[in-house]
Prior knowledge:
69% helix; mainly alpha
Amino acid sequence: MKSATKKLSTEIAETLSGKIAAVSAGSKKIKKSIEKAAEKLAKKVEKFEKETQKKQEKDAKTAEKKSKGKDKRKKEGKKEKAAKVAALVAAASSKTAIAAPPKPLVSKAPAPGKPAGSRPAGRPAKVAPVTPVQPTSETQSAE
């Protein structure tokens, strides 16, 4: 019996050692596959973080450009309005006032029988024709 027990115990020991070796080898494989999966996951997480950071930076730049663009548009609008007002003021001040029609000049000497200031009733005095003032190139460009 002792030999049978020894034989049985050696079989059990061999079986157990074989199974332990298989489990440890399997656990090594499992451990390696877990490590590989962890590395892949770490790479994906790193890539995602970089993309997120780039997107945030891009959004920040876009927002900054938009805010600067609005400020510039406001400033340009104010400058344009000021320039328009200045141009209108310059145009208004540079325009010559409409000249009053000149007083009629009597070119003929009065007739010997008539007094100098007399005129037949109902007849208007002769007035020299008024020529319209032509706008100059300066006033046209201001308008």
